[in-house]
């Protein structure tokens, strides 16, 4: 019997192991996840920190076969009617037992108001493509690493909701309006301007913000995760108390080093970080320590010996 149970942080080690094994076995049959062969799975597939983040930010379920964890599935909902299957993995020993199909139908029952489902999977995996098409998904887009799918169901009408669908609102102006709880999905907002607006507790998911300018914005307490921030410029920003963790220079390839210039890092902590080839130049290192050892003292001893 297949059931879904909400995952907890305590489940992260087991789910990470299952997900890693599932994608590594997938790679043995279909090749690496990426075109350049740099990874067996999507970004963070073998990272417990990524699983912990997913449990925190998405609807993450354990797939239970009787009393055993057979895999996992995480769902990100955009409002009430749209959802993305963020990840689905089944342990190799439980594959080809109709568990994936049952899981997808159970998920749809968990979110009965969702009528538009989206997901992406490896462009190489013919088995995955066949699986999703068999349960009603259709291909919508493809790049060198992924094929994207979509499934549309009959929408449940809600008389209390004003729906704008397939509408051209170009150059429309909204002023002194209440949009509390409004949903925007599959909307082209290129070159739109939003100013003097309360957007607290807003959720942005699966959004293209390339070349966007954010200026004079209060984003205290905001959460940024599972994002492509390659080549961004962050400047004139207050970062006091910021928590930056589990980042990289590109999920599947390096996009170049990070540059910190004229940054106040007073009393900051770098823990369990990769600092290979880091260059610290013309910086105030007063009271700076590495593993409890004073850098000033190390430099003093070095200078005495040369």
From TrEMBL:
Residue ranges annotated for the N-acetyltransferase domain, each copy included: 2-155
Source organism superkingdom: Bacteria
CDD domains the UniProt entry points to: NAT_SF (cd04301)
Coiled-coil ranges per UniProt: none
Ranges that cross the membrane: none
Database matches in Gene3D superfamilies: 3.40.630.30, E3 ubiquitin-protein ligase SopA (2.160.20.80)
InterPro entries per the UniProt record, alphabetical: 5peptide_repeat, Acyl_CoA_acyltransferase, GNAT_dom, Pentapeptide-BTB/POZ_domain
PANTHER family: BTB_POZ DOMAIN-CONTAINING PROTEIN KCTD9 (PTHR14136:SF17)
Listed name of the protein: GNAT family N-acetyltransferase
Naturally occurring in which organism (per UniProt): Ectobacillus antri
Source taxonomy: Bacteria, Bacillati, Bacillota, Bacilli, Bacillales
